[in-house]
Design goal:
Peroxisomal Thiolase, Chain A, domain 1; about 25% strand; four-stranded mixed beta sheet; binds oxa(dethia)-CoA; alpha/beta; 11 helices; about 35% helix
C-alpha cells in the first residue's frame, strides 16, 4: 500500500434554538402525548437538543455542514480549493435532488472536488470516513472532507414519544488527508456491516419513489419517522459491543490500550450498557448526547471535535469510533491520532 489516511482537522456547528426536555414535553402535549423531563433524562441522558429553523437559510442541513467544515479546514490549514472529494453523510437531505453534497459544494466553493451523499443514517460519518480512507489509500484522493450533518426535526413524529424525545440537529466534519503508509498517526482499520432485514426498526414510509406523498398520507404522518425503540436498543448494545471488540482485536489491542471511545450518541443508557460489556472505564468515553440529543450522522464527528478542541484527544492516542443506525447499519473505525 502506498498511502494511509489521517484526520488533520475537525469542526462542528449547531443551530441556535435550544429545545429543553420541557419544550419537548409541551410540543408532545399539543398532540395529546404525555411525557416528562425526568423520564426523558433518566431513560436517555438527554437534557436538551438543538432544532434548526427551516425558514433560516443559514440553518439548512448544507449550511450547518459548511459551518462545521470551515472550522475543520481552518484547523487543518487547508482551503476549500484543496479538497478533492466531499462525502456528505446524511439521512435528512436539503432536497432529494440535487444531493446535499452538491448544495454544500456550491456554498463552500470547493470547485476541484467531486461530491456525493452517503445515507447510512446514524452510521453515515463512520461509513464516510471509511470510504475516504479507501480513496486516499488507492491514491485517487489526496484531501477529503467528510461531513455528518442532519436536520431531523422535520421528520419527527410528534404523535410518537419515542422519536420526539431523542432527535436533534447539528453537523460535524473532518478533513482527511494522505499520509505515509506506516505513519504513526493514521486510520488503522474500518469494519462495516449492514442488515437490511431489520429495515422496519427505523424508517420513513412515504416521500420516496416507492410511496408518493399524497394529502392523505401527509395527514397520517407517513412522511415522519417510525421507530421500534425497544428493539433497536437491544441490537445496538449487542452490535456496538461486538464491533468495538472486533476493531480492537483485529489490530492486536485490548480495551486497556484504548485512550478514547467515541460511540454513536443515541441514548446514554445504550452507551452505559456497551461500556459495561466491553469493560471500558467511564473516563475514556466521550459523550455529548446530554446537550445535543441524537443528531444521527452528526453525533460522532461533533463529539470527536469537542474532545479534540478541549484537549482531551492528544497526538499518539488510540481512538475508537463505534456506530449503529437505521438500515440497520453498523461499523467501527480505529484511529491512531
Ligand atoms: O440512532 C438510532 C436510532 N434510535 C435509537 O437508538 C433508539 C433506541 N431506543 C431508545 O432509546 C429507547 O427505546 C427509547 C428512549 C426510545 C424508549 O425507552 P425505553 O426504555 O426502551 O422505553 P420502553 O419503550 O421500553 O417503555 C418503557 C415504559 C413504558 O411504560 P410501561 O408499559 O412500562 O408502563 C412506556 O409506555 O416507559 C413508557 N414510555 C414513556 N414514558 C414517558 C415510553 N416512552 C416514554 C416517554 N415518556 N417518552
Amino acid at each position: 500500500m502506498k498511502y494511509a489516511a489521517k484526520i488533520i482537522g475537525t469542526g462542528c456547528a449547531f443551530p441556535e434554538r435550544r429545545m429543553t426536555n420541557n419544550d419537548i414535553v409541551n410540543r408532545l402535549e399539543e398532540e395529546d402525548v404525555a411525557t416528562d423531563d425526568r423520564w426523558i433524562h433518566e431513560r436517555t441522558g438527554i437534557r436538551e437538543r438543538r432544532f434548526s429553523d427551516p425558514s433560516n437559510p443559514e440553518e439548512r442541513n448544507s449550511s450547518l455542514g459548511v459551518a462545521a467544515a470551515r472550522k475543520a479546514l481552518e484547523m487543518a490549514g487547508r482551503t476549500p480549493e484543496d479538497v478533492d472529494q466531499i462525502i456528505y453523510a446524511t439521512c435528512s437531505p436539503d432536497t432529494l435532488l440535487p444531493s446535499t453534497a452538491c448544495w454544500f459544494q456550491h456554498k463552500i466553493g470547493a470547485s476541484r472536488a467531486w461530491a456525493m451523499d452517503l445515507n447510512a443514517a446514524c452510521s453515515g460519518f463512520v461509513y464516510g470516513l471509511a470510504t475516504a480512507d479507501q480513496f486516499i489509500k488507492s491514491g485517487q484522493t489526496r484531501t477529503a472532507l467528510v461531513v455528518g450533518a442532519e436536520v431531523l426535526n422535520p421528520f419527527i413524529n410528534w404523535r410518537d414519544r419515542g422519536t420526539g424525545i431523542l432527535f436533534g440537529d447539528g453537523a460535524g466534519a473532518a478533513v482527511v488527508e494522505r499520509t505515509a503508509p506506516e505513519a504513526p498517526a493514521r486510520i488503522l482499520s474500518s469494519h462495516l456491516l449492514s442488515d437490511g432485514n431489520l429495515w422496519e426498526l427505523l424508517y420513513i414510509p412515504a416521500g420516496g419513489s416507492s410511496m408518493e406523498l399524497t394529502p392523505e398520507r401527509f395527514a397520517e404522518n407517513m412522511h415522519k419517522m417510525r421507530m421500534n425503540g425497544k428493539e433497536i436498543f437491544k441490537v445496538a448494545v449487542r452490535t456496538l459491543s461486538e464491533f468495538a471488540n472486533r476493531a480492537l482485536e483485529s489490530n492486536g489491542f485490548t480495551i486497556d490500550d484504548l485512550d478514547w471511545f467515541v460511540p454513536h450518541q443515541a441514548n446514554y443508557r445504550i452507551i452505559e450498557a456497551v461500556v459495561r460489556r466491553i469493560g471500558c472505564p467511564r473516563e475514556k468515553v466521550i459523550v455529548n448526547v446530554d446537550r445535543y440529543g441524537n443528531t444521527s450522522a452528526a453525533t460522532i464527528p461533533t463529539a470527536l471535535d469537542e474532545a479534540v478542541r478541549d484537549g482531551r484527544i492528544q497526538a499518539g492516542q488510540l481512538i475508537l469510533l463505534d456506530c449503529f443506525g437505521a438500515g440497520l447499519t453498523y461499523g467501527a473505525i480505529l484511529i491512531r491520532w
